[in-house]
Amino acid sequence: MAGEAEEGGFSESQREGLKGRSADQDRTLAAIHRLEEALGSAAPGRETAWRDDVLAALGVLDEVAAEEDDNAGRPDSLLSDIKRTQPRLRNRVRGVRVQYAQLRDRIAALRHELGEGGDHGADFADIRQRLAWLMTAFRHQRARESDLIYEAYYDAFNAELRPDR
Fold first, then answer.
1. CATH number of this structure's domain 12-157, picked from the four choices 1.20.1420, 1.20.120, 1.20.1530, 3.30.420
2. pTM metric for this prediction
3. Close Cβ partners of 1 (under 8 Å, ≥ 6 residues apart)
4. Which of 41, 117, 136, 152 is 20 to 30 A from 19 in CA distance terms?
């Protein structure tokens, strides 16, 4: 991986990349929790309020996902470092980036659908299920990216990734 690695670990720039990635993931996780809370509230009899809460939470998730995607695409990101320095992992980096784009497209489609659908005849169970799938896809994407970074670190340093103390 790029930069001079300190013994048994990441370089300072790589550590900063990990911190930034962790902060991005924390914001995304908080947005997912907010969406779960909105989805779990009662819907029948308060359709407009429920839909507005879900749309607001989905909007927050959209914003933090866009920021996470933008940060992951930066030339100084960990993913860019892996792509540059470890040719065998380039396709997996591309896959993670494609998945970011797919998740963002799915959020946009769901926001549009919920915003245009009105309150009458909404199938709350279906909406909850579809948004649960989206949140599961985010968790899968996070795990896939974590596995990729761990594998790249292990390949570069022949040591397990350990948290800084």
1. 1.20.1420
2. 0.82
3. 10, 11, 14, 81, 82, 85, 86, 152, 153, 156, 157
4. 136
- 143-156 residue pLDDT tens: 999 899 888 887 77
Where are the domains positioned within the chain? 12-157
